Amino acid sequence: AKKVFETFAEKDDLGHAAFDAAQANLYLVQGKIKDAAALSARILDLCKKHQVERGPLVLTARHCQALDALARRDFASADKNWTELLTIQEHEKQNILLPRTLNYLGLSAELQSKFKEADRYLAKAEALQKGNPRAFPATHFITQWRLANVAQALDRKDHVRKHLEEAIAVVEKARYLTFG
Questions:
Q1: pLDDT of amino acid 175
Q2: How far apart are the C-alpha atoms of 22 and 31, rounded to whole Å?
Q3: In contact, 99 and 140? CB cutoff 8 Å
Q4: How far apart are CA 139 and CA 52, in angstroms?
Q5: Strand, helix or coil for residue 73
Q6: CA-to-CA distance for 150 and 160, rounded, in angstroms?
Q7: Mapping DSSP to helix (H, G, I), strand (E, B) and coil, where does residue 72 land?
Q8: Residue 94's pLDDT is what?
Q9: What's the rounded Cα separation, in Å, for the pair 126 and 32?
């Protein structure tokens, strides 16, 4: 599809950003964070040219940049990108990816041994997902798992088990809804 699109589209058509964002997401699934991040600059340049300041193209590009920074342990850059994403997602209201962003902010804080900060981000992600039929099971599971890790670090042993049981419940519900 991309090759066909390139035969008639202008070089700076916003459609190129859409194809690059799709490719970036495929790279992320394959664990190729650097390759995904490499596409971010072009996506953001095209978005800027077409006055696109929000939406899935911008979110994808900024998320790829943040993941790349986190992989390089450049926490300041990762946190800056995810904090800006958080602002965009909160402005758009009911963004399904907001818990994912909060999870990554929590992970970054956890990796920096800022466990109380991590707990705040993850608790917010948990609140957004609890009872939300649109919540992604994988993201919800990760929230509970990370909360258990943070609870362990904060020596809240009673919370560790609660979060792990909640994580298993999320997985079991998804399995039941998928396979019966």
A1: 83
A2: 14
A3: yes
A4: 27
A5: coil
A6: 8
A7: coil
A8: 64
A9: 28
What's the pLDDT at 124?
96
Question: How high is the pLDDT of residue 47?
Answer: 95
Alpha helices in 11-156 (DSSP H): 15-29, 33-38, 40-49, 56-71, 75-92, 98-111, 115-129, 137-153
Query: Collapsing DSSP states into helix, strand and coil, what is residue 161?
Result: helix
Count the Cβ atoms, other than its own, within 10 Å of residue 18.
17
Of 28, 57, 35, 27, give the one whose Cα is nearest residue 45.
Answer: 57
Tokens matching residue 16: 């190129």
* CA separation for the pair 4, 7 (Å, rounded): 5
Q: What are phi and psi of 135, to 5 degrees?
A: -65, 135
**What pTM was computed for the model?**
0.89
Instruction: Give the pLDDT means over successive 10-residue stretches in the chain (180 positions).
Output: 78 89 95 96 95 91 97 97 92 84 97 98 95 90 96 95 92 83
pLDDT for res 145: 96
Report the C-alpha gap between 69 and 80 in whole angstroms: 10
